[in-house]
Amino acid sequence: MHQNDFAASSTNPNGGRLMTCVLVALAFAIIGVPSVWGEDPDNETVFRKTLLPLVRTYCLDCHDHGSEIDLAVDSTAASLSANRSRWNQAIAHLRLGSMPPEDGPEMDAETRARMVQTIDSLANAVNCVQNPNAGRVALRRLNRTEYRNTIRDLTGVDYKPADDFPGDDVGYGFDNIGDVLSLPPILMEKYVDAAMEISGEAIYAPPPPEIFDIQRTASALIGAEKYRGTAPLVMASAGTVALQVDLPFGGEFELTLTAGGDQGGDEPVKIEVNWGGKPKVIDVTSEDAEDITIPLRLGRGQRKIELSFINDFYQEGGVDRNFHLYHVKLSGAQRRKTYVDPEKLPASHRRILYVSPSRDVSELQAARAVLARFASRAFRRPVSKSEVERLVRLVSDVRQAGGLYEDAMQVAIASVLVSPHFLFKIERPRTPNDDGEMPSINNYELATRISYFLWSSMPDDELLSMAHQGTIRDRSRLLQKIASMIRDRRSNQFVDNFASQWLQLRNLETVDPDTRLYRGFDNEIRTLLWRETLTFFAGVMRENMPVTTLLDADFTYLNEPLAKFYGIPGVEGQDFRKVSLAGTPRGGLLTHGSVLTVTSNPTRTSPVKRGKWVLENLLNTPPPPAPADVPELPRGKLAGTLRERLEQHRANPACATCHNMMDPLGFALENFDAVGRWRSTDGVDEINASGVFPDGTAFNGIDDLRRLLSTHRKDDFIRALAEKLLIYAIGRGTEYYDKCAIDQIVSDCHAGGDRFAYLIVAIIESDPFQKQGYRE
């Protein structure tokens, strides 16, 4: 098992410097994007009459002409739209209440809301009625998790590529983003090797015949010591040498003698070969060394093959007849089995090769039927006749080369598994129609998007059937299918892959709390903390609870070891079960040890990391990195409790703007130590878990923070979760033109009582999920 800011400096020595941290970072993030709407008269009127007076009142004191970040330069709505990245950061700061700064002009809630709405309408000027851009996803290959799951569901083979394939890059917080999933040559090589291994495991082919091969020089034979010479061994008179072997199987063998002789007299050298059957007499007709091959049928086990020189000839003053032996080789191959009991075949074999050759069905007919179905499932769409015929020709080629039918099918299946149509989630490019309407992806592409969203795997037969029958966009049928997919065990993949990345739980694999300080934490607890959060997320999803339950639940899932680690009594056994947290300070994700551990340092908690985590993951408002020109604080100057040291740190104006957002959120979690256990003191210091948001909202401890996030910041949380889910579901980062879709998703979720299933359905029914636009 197993994230926007607005400020700068100017003439105000305090307020300006407070804003420096954010705007310096933003200066490098501004991207000029042509406005979709150009010089829209209505937008220009709103800009001049509504926004510009607000900017003059609350912003231009620090950000006028000549300042480090000149807001006055955006003198039209079109210019503001072109610099929407900067203004979206401003919206985030206004919503958080961090702008204007504490020493700036006071802004009441109504004015703040009006300014946010006005900037949003101008910076993200999208006509939600007139065909807003649905966006386009880059060609996406399967990541490692999707590859493993798809191979399992397609072939029945659980292939584990994690240790073999290179790691997947991450974009926008997830590892299924098309823009970053490249295909380096080394990965293509791994795919080829994997395809052959997988097809060989999925389809049983009788093993190739066992080969026996033994070679001996003549001098190494039994009885060779009686004769002179080593190469060759020379028999000047009648005699015998022998080859002793232990054969692993019986069958047809070949004995090859490299031999020659002195050819005296009126007949050639004759050798008798005796192996226990009827002896064979062989003529050796050459004086020089030549290979003589003798077929033998031998039984399994110990065998002795004798070679006897039987026609010695001697004549005084003439040419003697002598036998010269150089080398002996015995080789053979076990006959390959071609029949296997069907009952002993693996389930994957029977499922894939559902048609077998017979008297009524030729091999190519069987191959055609099998490959048409297999390739259609692998490509997540019907295959064409030409695609099938190419695969059938491959089968024919392997058979003609001497391979068995099963060998040929293994090769054809492997070729499917290295096809781009399998390795990539391919969608046919489309363009808007003459009226500008965004085209819908086809039914099979929609089925693929749904299945990889909820299962991280290929569509099942029912989903493909819905695509084929054209019922996949029938809302009642689709809702039923989505509900069943959420209940299916394969949705555990969604829980693991989405929740682990959204909540950064994968960092649990590398965090290393100091176990001398935090006794009881070990690798078992590390795994159980992760499991608690995933089980909790799955429970909220499958029971279709309001998504805010993730924040304010009064229950979790524990087993006995984890309950003891937390200090919660009454839980017995190794199995996880739902446990009430009534009467305890725990409840919701923010009190999970997994989250609290990954947001801590090895030797202490980190309010900064924890506050940053809340902003990034629960409110989708990540603070920018500190600018490069902020000087490092002198070491050894900060003293007191952790809270006091951080307050001294925030006294630096260059750091205050960012930390005023993060630190109060982290302080609310200070009653939990660096591994997530409750405490009332930090050493000898009493815990002070109170804080104030930049907008002046005060809170004290985890209970207040949970309540504020699930009520006061409820819409921000649901919108953040909706955007994270949309990114994960479509495999690309969201853009300004996705605003209409996200607004609709949040609205649909509210209409369903904010329940989890309605959020999932709203994602699937959204235009970015259902349609294909263009990339700007």
UniProtKB/TrEMBL annotation:
Transmembrane segments: none annotated. Residues 695-769 form the DUF1585 domain. Residues 367-427 form the DUF1595 domain. Residues 255-336 form the Carbohydrate binding module xylan-binding domain. Residues 441-568 form the DUF1592 domain. Signal peptide: none annotated. InterPro entries: CBM60_xylan-bd, DUF1585, DUF1587, DUF1588, DUF1592, DUF1595. Residues 586-682 form the DUF1588 domain. It holds the Pfam family PSD3. Residues 140-203 form the DUF1587 domain. This is DUF1592 domain-containing protein. The lineage of its organism: Bacteria, Pseudomonadati, Planctomycetota, Planctomycetia, Pirellulales.
